[in-house]
Glutamate ABC transporter substrate-binding protein
Amino acid sequence: MKFRALVVGLAAAALTLTACGQSGSPGGSAGPVVSEAPAANVQVPDSATFAAMQQRGRVVIGVKDDQPGLGFKDATTGEYSGFDIEIARLVAAKLGFGTDKIDYKTVPSAAREDAISRGEVDYYVGTYTINDSRKQRVSFAGPYFIAGQSLLVRADETAITGKDTLKGKKVCSVTGSTPIQRVRDQGLTEPNNIVEFQTYTQCVDQLLSNQVDAVTTDDAILKGYASQQPDKLKVVGETFSTEPYGIGLNHDDAALRGKIIDILQTAYDDGSWQKIYDNTLGKSGSPASPPALQRY
């Protein structure tokens, strides 16, 4: 895969990320990697979402909180950190909202479209794969990251070596996620062997307690979990998808989407994206460059 290098060695990254952020936070720095004053006098004409942000004086961002290296909430400090969180903060700053004007709202995968379409969040940044089905209900700015589906198993597992060895095995992922739908659509295991929960952490707990045989989602997420318990967990097999992560937005708010695409393009061009990557997932030692943006 073109951006396979993005996540190679992420296991090492999640262990070292703690050193560059808030104590105890494995996802990255607690404060923004790219520090700058929020932009002044920002205008996004014809954006109802942006108008709502301005009226309340705060931005509400949908995120994940259980994905080390991407979107993670420290249980002790309450700080959010990781690559996705940094991208969310960058966008907020460019829209005129500093870190003290951000409200993070944890939204499970199955509820993302509802949360966006109902206006419960202004935008969503959390390993959110861009696909045609979701575009029927929401729009996306991006992609800002590319990953691929893989498998997490127990360290002593020898029978599961890739997607073609899942028959008869219990496979877990998050309800409403692209990975579990792919397992179902491709018949990788029997329907009664598909197990779904609201969070990946619940799936990992089931794996550790021998209730399921594998957890499947994007390899970046899985390697974050494996890095926390390398003596108990490992990622196996080649990736079997291409997952372009986008920022989820209200379906009809083309103005805000265009603004965020411009923000991402500027971050690509001025090195801000690279700085964010290098200080979060890049701690793995694996180089990466930003993917091309989609301007549909």
About this structure: The first strand starts at residue 59 and ends at 63. The first helix runs from residue 10 to 16. The mean pLDDT is 87.
